Amino acid sequence: MGSLDPLPMQGPELGVHADDIETPEMEQESKQEVLENKDVIVQHVHIDGLGRTKEDCLTYEIAGVFRAKNLIDVMKRAHEARQKLLRLGIFRQVEVVIDTSQGVDALPNGLDVTFEVTELRRMTGSYNTMVGNNEGSMVLGLKLPNVFGRAEKLTFQFSYGTKETSYGLSFFKPQPGHFERNFAVNFYKVTGQFPWSSLRETDRGVSTEFSFPLWKTNHTLKWEGVWRELGCLARTASFAVREESGHSLKSSLSHAMVIDTRNSPILPRRGALLKINQELAGYTGGDASFLKEDFELQFNKRLFWDSVLSASLWGGCLLPIGDKPTCIADRFYLGGPTSVRGFSMYSIGPQSEGDYLGGEVYWAGAVHLYTPLPFRPGKGGFGDLFRTHFFLNAGNLCNLNYGDGPRAHLSKLAECIRWSYGAGIVLRLGNIARLELNYCIPMGVQSGDR
């Protein structure tokens, strides 16, 4: 973080003797007193170091500095403007310098604020390796920040793995002055392997997104057109999976709303989260027709002894439109460390010959208690990254006959509930991920569950 430089204290010494006082020193002393104890006016804001960046798109980010009324307010608003400039993703470094106004139009209480910026290079690249899902891959990335000078971004990523190859090209354009309001276009080819279903899926598609805030919520409107190719991952794949194999075209409109007041997305100590997603496929083309709804709700409350109680609830419903049944790639899956612990990944619900086919409706809930490690080893340092974890998970996944009515649906969702409980240790890896080591006791296990 760049520092906010204090007001310069150069020039005649402030603590002079009365016999040595002259007019310039009196003016300097009076000016310093005005700046520290009275209102000030920001007369000029400069941005030094611009190359290809257009000044008009930065005017919105620094406009708040002119509304400052005193020195503390100037420092606060200058820091906020600095954060907004860094958020654009076009500067490597932003420094702030606050000085008294100079020149013939300088006021006694006038200030000049200068932002000294260092732009990112026109092109940046990255190279890394990834290991996961029984596959290793090499990932090459190419990024062109600030393509046209107004915080646009063009990104290309190529992944070459031991089993599959994927790539994607995306263009991102924010609205000047409203970074949360942005537009994105994506072209991609992604291949995934799903061993719990003996399924291999290759998607080639294009999508457009428009994101915007509304009151305390964030919304995303999206259109996606994707050519999907489904195939069997093994010769032992069940006949139900083989029936799903082949090509399909999905064109869908979706909307997502998010309210997030949590202090951290990884191990929150307070706040709540609400996510609601809707997807409608078939009305803009393609051969997949369905209406899909799902939600996520989470509450976090800090208790005594630095412990945190967290409660979560998920649910979703997939409704086919027309006579054609839903596709295995569109259904919900349940089980594993992200939903019902103690069960294998996505290994709950309808299955055929050992291959899990997913369900059209599901719900899951969890209650967690996070506490510090016993005896608080490493308190105030590395030990604070670890938490003791007690949990209770439950959920169910099934298919519904939509002609039976709501009461029959609720009755079926309440049957054969899978649940588990246990304890473990959680390690927070920065603000991007968490690592859990748990001892789980699965309960309510049904025939075919893993």
UniProtKB/TrEMBL annotation:
The keyword ATP-binding does not apply. GO terms for biological process: mitochondrial respiratory chain complex assembly; protein insertion into mitochondrial outer membrane. Pfam families: Omp85 (PF01103). One of its GO terms (cellular component) is mitochondrial outer membrane. It is found in: Mitochondrion outer membrane. Gene3D superfamilies: membrane protein fhac, membrane protein fhac: a member of the omp85/tpsb transporter family. It is a multi-pass membrane protein. Keywords: Membrane, Mitochondrion, Mitochondrion outer membrane, Transmembrane, Transmembrane beta strand. Residues 40-120 form the POTRA domain. Its main location: mitochondrion. Belongs to the SAM50/omp85 family. This is SAMM50 sorting and assembly machinery component. It comes from Oncorhynchus kisutch (Coho salmon). The gene is SAMM50.
